[in-house]
Specification:
Layout: E1 20-21, H1 22-25, E2 31-40, E3 43-46, E4 48-49, E5 63-66, E6 72-80, E7 87-91, E8 103-108, H2 110-126, E9 134-139, E10 144-149, H3 157-168, E11 175-180, H4 181-185, E12 204-210, E13 214-217, E14 232-240, E15 244-251
Parallel strand pairs: 1-4
Antiparallel strand pairs: 2-3, 2-8, 3-7, 5-6, 5-8, 6-7, 9-10, 10-15, 11-12, 12-13, 14-15
Length: about 250
Amino acid sequence: MMQGTRAFANMKGRVPFMTELLFRDDAYLKTATARVVAVRDGEVELDRTIFYPLGGGQPGDTGFLIRDTGARLAVTDTRKGETPGAVAHVIAAGATLPETGEAVGLELDWVRRYALMRLHTALHVMSCVVVAPVTGGNIAPDKARLDFDIDITLLDADRIAHGTNELIARGVATESVWITDQELDARPELVKTMSVAPPRGAGRVRLLRIPGIDLQPCGGTHVANIAEIGGIRVLRIKNVGSRNRRVEIALTG
């Protein structure tokens, strides 16, 4: 796991560090405390965070930073920071930003995040029902989609929904496992998504494992047990370009 660094060194006014990603170990954390490392252009970088930054088709989290004064600063988006390894929390316009070194509370918009977690995990399960190369994907709080390189005549909405929901009904617990970059290179079949390369550079890669169902690289947030997804329905299937066949889903409840 990437660890927050306390021994900061000045580099032209910037401080090199890596934000500690608390959601990597516990995606169910709703609150935490952190310290401000940098403030620039309406964005706040912290030494650690529970907010997932935009990436891999999953949107950045929203919520609040809470100052000692009680002021609640709305976080409207979360992105990868300007400093490599940092996470930037985008603050709503007009707010008085905290100072570097200040301690703040973190409060996640949990309803939104949990919907994203359920849908993200549902896409993993669906990718085991539609067996084809994945060319893209996207997740929103109310729906999600995967694009496949497959003949559209092979895609049936009822079959996809039924197959996915049958797997969800198994109630299998998910697991995060790590392998080295070299191990991933030796097992290219693990990479299903053609458009998103697994994050490298730290020497190891995080995988999501759903025993008996799925195993693939993913840095996003997921539910602890696929039963939490509840169920899905297919909203539509359509052609998107010459190769992409888009399957869009929503949760049933």
